[in-house]
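From: lab user (bench 3)
To: helpdesk
Subject: output format question, protein + 2-acetamido-2-deoxy-beta-D-glucopyranose

Hello, I'm new to running complex predictions and I'm not sure whether the block I got back is the full result or only part of it. Here's what I submitted:
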Amino acid sequence: MEGVRLAALLAVLLQAAAGRSQLPQIDPLIYDEQLLWVGGGAGEVNTYRIPLLTFTSHGSLLAFAEARKHSSGDVGAKFIAVRRSEDKGATWSPTSFVVDDGSLVDGLNLGSVVVDEQKGSVMLIYSLCFHLYQCSPSSTMLVESLDDGQTWSPPRNLSVQLGVKSFAPGPGFGLQKRYPPAKGRLVVCGHGTIEGDGVFCILSDDHGQTWRNGAALKSIPYNQPKKSLDFNPDECQPVELQDGSIVINVRNQNNYHCRCRMVVRSLDGGETLPVEELVFDYTLVDPVVAAGALQKDGVLYFSNPANSHQRINMTLRWSLTDGRSWVNEALQIWQGPSGYSSMTALVGNSVEDKKYVFVIYEKGHKSSVETISVAKIHLYGGR
Ligand SMILES: *[C@@H]1O[C@H](CO)[C@@H](O)[C@H](O)[C@H]1NC(C)=O
Ligand SMILES: *[C@@H]1O[C@H](CO)[C@@H](O)[C@H](O)[C@H]1NC(C)=O
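Helpdesk reply: Thanks, we reran it on our side. This is the complete output you should expect:
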């Protein structure tokens, strides 16, 4: 009897140590799903792509996407579209446009959204002329909202501080360090041009006023044409673990070593990405795409089209060991065509906020991904 009680106590202590006290076993279920954008329709937008999702300090959700004006291609003129939800994803505001790049030949590309919880601001960082197609140089731009995403500042050119190297943030979210080292720092990671590719992070220690270049994990051969199977880290999603390290989940552009995700860790708040901290996660099979990652209450979540060759089968995985292993069960969110995805969770202390994660993703019904959908996932819904 005493032994049983001791074992139960030990279990509770272990769970608390892992930061998951009082939470039942994860068994996720799609609670609600809504289409936010459908392309090819009326109006000024041909295609919506590259969805981003974030919480805000005020408890809202903000969804963003590139609204590609004339074609579905990455190059070309675009708006940045936003929709807001003030009721935990139940209803969403009509679309409004945060930025309009006019009629640029090589227009804007999203992007990374980062919330400064200390200041209560939301920043959106994107690139202009990323592909250097009939334009030069490439610029890294920032817009900021101080009113929960309702109004936005004019664009600010961060290349004045960072230099004009092509930098495509995200796509996904940047983070504000919640744990030491460098608590309060903003860390936004992205990738370089096709040749000068690799993962690069930019850092701000003053709430987004000034930015500097931080960690880099460069491709090999760097700044030279790539071949199939070369080492080519590309689009990425950083998340902070509860030990203060930052793990970056990276698109493996040329299928180096595996058809799976690369994961690299920074132990110094985004200053460096040592090669010793690079691993290939064979469980996270990937068709070369931008994926979502999130740390919530000590659990690491991952979303991607879980297939080695095709962008189909949008799947949510979770890890109780900071990504060293993944729970066998996975939640299939959508079996059909699925592309880029991004995740968030509300950070309130209410029981309700602890129960859900949100996944925004490119969702297709025929052969391409023609819509952007947001799924609200009840983490303990299955039991
Ligand atoms: C941004 O600043 C850089 C460096 O000063 C400059 O070369 C570039 O033209 C600027 N971009 C825009 C869009 O103003
Ligand atoms: C979808 O993902 C699940 C979980 O990883 C996997 O078991 C299954 O084989 C995948 N199906 C396809 C068609 O890719």
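A quick orientation on your result: The pocket of 2-acetamido-2-deoxy-beta-D-glucopyranose (ligand 2) is lined by residues 306-307, 313, 315, 330, 332 (CB under 6 Å). Let us know if anything else is unclear.
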